Amino acid sequence: DRMAVESPKKAFRRQRRLPMQENTNAASQLLVRHNSSDRFIPDRGSLDLDVARVNLYDEEKERSSCPGSPYLSKQAYRKQLSATMFPKSRILYFQRKPRPAPETNVYSSDPPRPLPMPSISHRYIPQCPERTLDAPEILDDYYLNLMEWGAKNVLAIALGQRVYLWDASTSFISELVSMEEEEGPVTSVSWACDGRRIAVGLDNCDVQIWDTESNRQLRTMKGHTGRVGSLAWNVDSTLTSGGFDGKILKHDVRIREHIVETYRGHEQEVCGLKWSGSGQQLASGGNDNLLHIWDNRRTEYLHRFEAHRAAVKALAWCPFQSNLLASGGGTADRCIKMWNTDTGACLNSIDTGSQVCALLWSKHQRELLSSHGSAHNQLTLWKYPSMLKLADLSAHTSRVLYLAQSPDGYTVASAAGDETLKFWQVFGSADAPKTTSTSKDIAFKHHTHIGLRTLNAGSHDRLKSDMIFRANVEDQEENLIKKRVEDHMVENMTEEQKSDIATEDGDSD
């Protein structure tokens, strides 16, 4: 009777004390505790937590994988709400924010920025000459070379029997020499590299060397049997002359027996001679439509070009590419051709539409200036290597036979059969202010053979025409770029793509 009944709680505790015993009455014990009013204490030893965790995650994965489940809708709602209320960042940061990627990084999270448009510089190209001088008695002869600008900024020009020197720094003019009737007229002039000595070719087949500082003749050299229409000094102080007899003579003016080489390759008059900047190659053009390239160490020509169909007088070596030569043909040819003088390849040829009289490269821009004969008697500025026409400068009334460039490369002088000498700032202008002489009008007044002519052009009309000109140049460049892109696309198309385009064009017609 006194036996006390053991409570279920005590029995549960006593049972747990036994090691290595499986709990088989967990369910009944839970029911007993649930029915009783005692506090719930879970038995974690009887639970399989790993299985419960796997079941929980599988259930969550099944809910998220169902497209129409409310779980997905709730997640989407949370994301939308978070993006609306906090679009850029979280409220609290519990760790250091990572450094942003640089803008140049491919994986940068910053929004892409548009690339800056390339700036187009508009250079002003004057349509009118800066100065005009009278040049009476200048010979209107395509095969002569009567003007050149020396290294000391002195321009030499031959007018009939006389040679005049115009100092561009002081605007002062002096007469160097007046030839006798049996000697002249003067057929060519060429400055030495020192800017002091000048060679004068004559109609009587002679070549004279003059010292311009002392105004005295140094020597006379013979060797040709016809007039000397072209002269060219080399950097080694040797002089090359081309004559009506088709011969090219190389003179060493320092020795008594001055003829050191004879180049034979032309059958008619040699009207163009130019040494390259390095002094290693000589270009010669003749009335026989031939262009020769000579090596300084040999008397046989390196290349013989027969592509021109008229006399080749205009020659110009490129200042920024030593093996690039530009040549221009006469009335029956009208072409400017670019040559690689190392390989002998013709790089480009363009029909200018008129006789090419002279060529000049810019020393500051990749541009080429050409002078022409009828019908427009213009100077034309070309952009190299596209050979896009940048400007036509029309001021002469006769063919522009002679061109000369100042030592700084900015000013160009042009002389024509209309007996005028014009100065152009076609290649830009120097940063330094221009020097003007107060006595230049008096200096020109004392010389009747060259006079200053004042130009009265309306500034408003010039500004308007220049604006229209620049707009036309931009349109031409844009059209040229579009055409080249289209040509490149067509070249890379397959035959099937080309046939599809042709079919579309036929349907549209």
TrEMBL record:
Keywords associated with the record: Cell cycle, Cell division, Mitosis, Repeat, WD repeat
Highest taxon of source: Eukaryota
UniProt-listed SUPFAM superfamilies: WD40 repeat-like
Keyword Lyase included in the entry's annotation: no
Repeat region (WD), residues: 179-220, 263-304, 393-426
Gene Ontology CC: anaphase-promoting complex
Coiled coil: none
Gene Ontology terms: biological process: anaphase-promoting complex-dependent catabolic process; cell division; positive regulation of anaphase-promoting complex-dependent catabolic process
Region Disordered, annotated ranges: 1-26, 490-509
Residues covered by the CDC20/Fizzy WD40 domain: 133-424
A molecular function (GO) term: anaphase-promoting complex binding
Biased composition (Basic and acidic residues): 490-501
The keyword Cell cycle is annotated on this UniProt entry: yes
Described function: Component of the anaphase promoting complex/cyclosome (APC/C), a cell cycle-regulated E3 ubiquitin-protein ligase complex that controls progression through mitosis and the G1 phase of the cell cycle.
Family under the similarity heading: Belongs to the WD repeat CDC20/Fizzy family.
Name of protein: CDC20/Fizzy WD40 domain-containing protein
